[in-house]
Amino acid sequence: MDNLPKKNRKVSSFFAMFLVHKMQIGVGLLGFERVIAKNAGYDAWVSILITGFCVNIVIWMSFRMLHKDGNDLISIHKHLFGKWVGGGLSLYFIVYFVFLTITILRTYTEVIQIWLFPGINVPVLLIIFGLLVYSCVAGGFRIVAGIAFIGLLIGMPLLLLKYFPLQYANFSNLSPVLDHSVKDLLLSAKAVTLNFLGFELLLMYYPFLDEPRKAEKWAQIGTIFTTAVYLFSAFVSFAYYTQEELAHSIWATLTMWKIVDLPFVERFEYVGVSIWLFEIIPNVCLGVWAASRGVKRLFAVNQRKSLLFLLFIIILSCMLFQTRQGIDQLNTIVSQVGFWTVFIYIPALFVYYMIVDKVRKRSK
Amino acid sequence: MMGKMLLVLLSFVMLTGCGVQDHILEDVLLAEVVGYDTAEADKIKGSTVVSVSQSGEKSSMGKEVYTAVTHTDKNVRQQIESEAPRSLVGGRLSAILYGEKLARKGIYDYVDTYRRDPAVGRDLYLAVVSGKAEDIINVESKMLKTPGVKTEEIIDHNSKTHLPETSLHSFLYYYSGKNMDPVLPLLEVEQNHIKIKGIALFKDDTYIGKYIKYEDGFLFKVLLENFKKGVYEARIKEHSYIAIDNISSRVKYEIKDGNGSPEISIKAKIKGGVLEARNIELKSQSAVTAIEKKSEKTLEKKLDRMVKMFQDNNIDPLALGDRVRSQTRNFDSKHWEDVYRTVPIKVDVDVELVQQGITD
């Protein structure tokens, strides 16, 4: 049967909070506002609450399955659908994790290209990224979790920068509250999904959590924290921009850093984008780790070998997306696929798992 | 171990291959103020003050002016490069000026390029120049006795009293927002000094040629936002004036029936001190009350006239439409545009003189 990781390779249960939260806060935070305001306008903050709540429910479902199974998604698939169909579904998840990683990496390199160095040699940059990610992931899951924690620690102070746009804030932009139809709110809630994606990785790293029943609580807290961060950012951006201007701002939060006025830095966004690297690296590490772990479990190959192979594919695919439109499309597609995976497939799997579980118990 | 070291070394070597452009302070010209004017036949004339860092121990910055005439804004920059000894960078740009003639044609295209440019900040000032932007640029380049960019400093400190916030951000905010129009400071050159003439009024991105006088900028600010500074001189009767020092001014908008026939009442409350009272007695409470009443009247009359002027020109620098929207469900902005010119707007001013200085 499957061999579970040893105690000395596990992380404490409260790391679930950082792992879930870190994966959700990434490059999306720099410019999610205009995407979510497309349908529900400035009522979109309600949509953030809706999505956040749904994610809480999906996490609850995932933990119900995982607690029963005791291992990860791949063993759940095998248990429910047998070797071939289950393996196929697991393969789908591996491809999905790879695409998630590509999206994160490519979107961030675009930010570097546009905001810092227009003439930068993207392939070289990506290869350096790849080396960094390889050295982290090769160190094992504990290193990846540690990086997630450091990323959170370094990234959090950036929230204080909201002080500057708040000086220009016009909170009357938000009123009248709930001036949009329920349909608009739900459409926006769907658009928020991309920003919350990443928590489903817990289906892969569950066996690495020490005392998983305690970890569930921390995972929920992590998601609530994410909701709070997005809600706060959305409030500030909505108060700072008019709706019409927001619709044209690709990186609303990043653009707001332009007005940060510190005595020792004239233009803060250069510092901000660089600090943001620490938000990106953990996400890429986690994504690649989950995918390579999946490959290892499915095909029984050495994780380092699969890691190298996957990184190669990811870097190569990142180079394929050259234009803003292409990157935008990538984001949209991954958001769609993620929505179906997280909010349709996982709940369906949950229901099926519960039924199968009941039937099998009875037949015993 | 060896392999890892090699990896680290390799990444250093590779980083240099990333093709990154560097800007070293001594090797660039920092543009401080840029001005645009119309030129003959569809062309625009751009001029800019740059600070040139000088080598040696004394760290004074010299200033130089460059100009160019072309069709597009960014091409101005390229043309300027043709006569500049080093490359020009815009990271420290602090003000962009538009000549009156150009402003009357609409300035959005000239603003948009700065919004698009990640290298330029968002807290820089925009202003209209009565006459030619080039004149201010020339004066700016000669003011070397004190450090800093004069244009920026003048607008900056007046923003606390007689000018509304007019950075690139607020221009874009008011321009892009529905049912509101931006304003910009109007500058002029007087005896080799840069001076604020007033507040230039815009319809969308087009200067309509009218402005609020500098003195009345205070009144406009009273209507627009809560603030805490400034002095206003009110006429009490013939030959007697009173200077009110603003301690705090608060404004409230009351809106009725936003989608039908709207009614707006603006309530402003000014708490002030008396700085100067010519030919006026301030000994008794009743005398103070009488002066409060009188100055309220004067202010209301002026504000009424100002609001009426906005309506007559169909401009909305007070963002009245947006204030109505924020208090109306399912706001119909088309309907608002139709009725805006005829909406009854009542201005109510409440002056309270709480300090009279250290004498009575």
Automatic annotation (TrEMBL), chain A:
Taxonomic source organism: Peribacillus cavernae
Pfam family, one: Spore_permease
TM stretches of this protein: 12-32, 44-63, 84-105, 111-134, 141-165, 185-206, 218-241, 273-295, 307-327, 333-355
Keyword DNA repair attached: no
Compartments where located: Membrane
GO biological process: one example: spore germination
Family (UniProt): Belongs to the amino acid-polyamine-organocation (APC) superfamily. Spore germination protein (SGP) (TC 2.A.3.9) family.
Membrane topology, from the record: Multi-pass membrane protein
UniProt GO cellular component terms: membrane
Keyword Transport part of the UniProt annotation: yes
Predominant location category: membrane
Assigned keywords, A-Z: Germination, Membrane, Transmembrane, Transmembrane helix, Transport
Name the UniProt record assigns to this protein: Spore gernimation protein GerB
InterPro entries listed in its UniProt record: Spore_GerAB
UniProtKB/TrEMBL annotation, chain B:
Keyword Membrane: yes
Subcellular localization: Membrane
A Pfam family assignment: Spore_GerAC
Keyword Membrane: yes
GO CC annotation: membrane
Membrane topology: Lipid-anchor
Alphabetized UniProt keyword annotations: Germination, Lipoprotein, Membrane, Palmitate, Signal
Similarity annotation: Belongs to the GerABKC lipoprotein family.
The protein's name in its UniProt record: Ger(X)C family spore germination protein
